[in-house]
Amino acid sequence: MTTTTAPPTATATAARATDLSKVYGEGETRVVALDAVSVEFRSGEFTAIMGPSGSGKSTLMHCMAGLDTVSAGSARIGDTELASLKDKQLTKLRRDKIGFIFQAFNLLPTLTAAENITLPMDIAGRKPDQEWLDRVVETVGLAGRLKHRPSQLSGGQQQRVAVARALASRPEIIFADEPTGNLDSRAGAEILGFLRNSVRELGQTVVMVTHDPVAASYADRVVFLADGRIVDELHGPTADTVLERMRNLPGGSDRTPGDAKPRTS
Ligand code: ADP
């Protein structure tokens, strides 16, 4: 009798960088912001990207999200190689497959919360899936606030609107750049909880850039960058284990924000 073992479940890759390099400037001002970075972001996973100031976190996010071009190597969203796309196709991919959450909430002041949430889809001429939208609004705790304008909402509530807006079109991946940077710790914890719930309960994929070990502890996985290279990775992080790894990064403990030096080679 033969026993068959089920093959390990293959998890889809939502985005992937392969030997991705990004160089800014030339000659004296040449900076290698990313140096042959290879990293995979699996579907349904919450990844935090951490590293000292100037280590390449934002550059990596911008290259992966098609907001910046790569100098060498590749950035893929799903199976799509971003460098192969023309401007129009790239705009469409960003609109259809990627959600963004920034530190500044970027809401339109004259629109209600509900209108802000569906704005990107309205612009794209896509009809929101009402059932999904209701779940999103419920997940981020905005029911009852949908008719409010941003000025009538607290910072934390405004960021919830931004989270709901990113989730509304059910994108393949959400990139969040210091999403709690402008919030007090309680509102920040709420937003991080909602992001985690969107991954656990709604199956979203989230990649978040942060310098805060507590924020990173909400993720399933933390990827550490130093000097444009991936130098470490942690699964099931806690604020303490993240902090400890940060201290052991090259240049991690004694480098203060803003003192990143251009590297010439
Ligand atoms: P982080 O997000 O980790 O603080 P960045 O990705 O912003 O790091 O920056 C990585 C490196 O690339 C830094 O040395 C930074 O000065 C440089 N850099 C980033 N953007 C530009 C740019 N547009 N022009 C020139 N240098 C840049």
Please summarize what this structure is.
With 265 residues, the protein is of the alpha/beta class.
The whole-number mean of residue pLDDT values reads: 89
- Secondary structure: helix percent: 25-40%
What is the CA-atom radius of gyration, in angstroms?
19 Å
The largest pleated sheet is described as:
6 strands, mixed
Cα-to-Cα separation, first versus last residue: 62 Å
CATH H level, superfamily name:
P-loop containing nucleotide triphosphate hydrolases
* Domain module count: 1
CATH-defined architecture: 3-Layer(aba) Sandwich
Helix segment tally: 8
* Overall shape: globular
What can you tell me about this protein's structure?
- The chain is an alpha/beta fold and 265 residues long.
- The chain is built from 8 helices and 10 strands.
- It has one domain: 3-Layer(aba) Sandwich (Rossmann fold), CATH 3.40.50.
- 32% of the residues lie in helices and 24% in strands.
- A 6-stranded mixed β-sheet has the order 6-7-8-3-9-10, with helices on both faces.
- Helix 3 packs parallel to helix 5 (155-168), helix 4 packs antiparallel against helix 5 and helix 5 (155-168) packs parallel to helix 6 (185-200).
- The N and C termini lie far apart (62 Å).
- The structure holds adenosine-5'-diphosphate.
- Adenosine-5'-diphosphate binds at residues 24-25, 31, 33, 51, 53-59, 260, 262.
Topology overview:
Elements: E1 13-24, E2 31-42, E3 46-50, H1 57-64, E4 72-77, E5 80-81, H2 87-97, E6 98-101, H3 113-124, H4 130-139, H5 155-168, E7 173-177, H6 185-200, E8 206-209, H7 213-216, E9 221-226, E10 229-235, H8 239-247
Parallel strand pairs: 3-8, 3-9, 6-7, 7-8
Antiparallel strand pairs: 1-2, 1-4, 4-5, 9-10
Residues 24-25, 31, 33, 51, 53-59, 260, 262 line the site of adenosine-5'-diphosphate.
